[in-house]
Write a structure and sequence with these properties.
Bound molecules: NADPH dihydro-nicotinamide-adenine-dinucleotide phosphate, ligand AOF
Strand order of the largest sheet: 5-4-3-2-6-1-7-9-8
Order of helices and strands: EHEHHEHEHEHEHEEE
CATH topology: Dihydrofolate Reductase, subunit A
Shape: globular
Mean pLDDT: 96
Radius of gyration: 17 Å
Structural class: alpha/beta
Number of helices: 7
CATH superfamily: Dihydrofolate Reductase, subunit A
Low-confidence stretches: none
CATH architecture: 3-Layer(aba) Sandwich
């Protein structure tokens, strides 16, 4: 295995925004969609977010359902996924919930000066927290280096849960296999709201199509699954 099968997952508004500018996390998914995402998490080995998402949302990135945790354990796996964070600065909060929870540990991917910063930040974690490694994945960190390190850790399926900078990084790398979008039935309409993809960064237009695998209604949320180019 040269790299994990990589799935990008994101909930977007009709105008392609993944949050609004307010202080609270915007809910774009509905309950049925969150449950599908939990099932998707349970089928993966690792879950990855950017440092922006860590700062904005302080996510736990756990498999939420006890039945799914048990199903994983019954197959000899950890109940939860290995958690990965990507940061250029290395400035991650050692008290983040992501580092304190789960049973499979965490990896912080950074590079350049960020490596020393992340190591010193993580040294401040409480004793007894699950293990957390810092990996130099280049300056700036690259999707290829991250995927190679995850493969070396035995990760066969990776779920990337954003945010926009990190989705853009994986899309432009050409090293992602699948995209799952949950499209909420509203517009965000704010100029400064975070986008799913940074403008101009990703090969775009009809000359760079994706293959539609599935289009389905989950209540008012539209689930779209795309194939992202051939596996290499
Ligand atoms: N609707 C949804 O499904 C989701 C929504 N969100 C929302 O998205 C928003 C956060 O998105 P966004 O701001 O784009 O943040 P990201 O989570 O994409 O993280 C951005 C950070 O990643 C690091 N980074 C940026 N570029 C690179 C690069 N080329 N190489 C390595 N590291 C890089 C930087 O970290 P550093 O600053 O440390 O250098 C940067 O601040 C939040 O509002 C969150 O709520 C998030 C996930 C899912
Ligand atoms: N708002 C939003 C999402 N937001 C993202 O979902 C993650 C939740 O992690 P956790 O809190 O650990 O379960 C986190 O990364 C957050 O940014 N996801 C979605 O599927 N739909 C949504 O509407």
């Amino acid at each position: 295995m040269d790299r994990p099968y990589t799935i990008l997952s994101c909930a977007v508004s009709v105008d392609g925004r993944i949050d609004d500018t307010g202080p609270e996390r915007l809910r774009l998914s509905n309950e049925a969609d969150f449950d599908e995402i939990d099932e998707l998490r349970a089928t993966c080995d690792a879950i990855l977010v950017g440092a922006g998402t860590l700062r904005a949302d302080d996510p736990r990135l756990l498999v939420r359902s006890p039945e799914r945790q048990e199903r994983r354990r019954a197959r000899g796996r950890t109940a939860h996924l290995l958690k990965a964070v990507v940061t250029r600065s290395g400035d991650v909060d050692p008290g983040a919930r992501l580092f304190a929870t789960g049973d499979a540990g965490a990896v912080v991917y950074t590079g350049g000066d960020g490596t020393a910063v992340a190591r010193s930040r993580l040294a401040a974690r409480p004793a007894g927290d699950p293990p957390a490694d810092v990996v130099d994945a280049g300056d700036p960190p690259s999707a290829a280096a991250i995927l190679a390190d995850l493969a070396a850790r035995g990760v066969e399926r990776l779920l990337v849960e954003g945010g926009g900078h990190i989705h853009t990084m994986f899309l432009t790398s050409g090293l992602a296999d699948e995209l799952r979008l949950a499209v909420a039935p509203f517009f965000v309409g704010e100029e400064g709201a975070p986008r799913f993809v940074l403008p101009g960064a990703y090969p775009h237009g009809p000359a760079a199509p994706m293959r539609l695998l599935e289009a389905r209604a989950l209540g008012d949320v539209a689930v779209l699954r795309y194939r992202l180019g051939e596996r290499r």
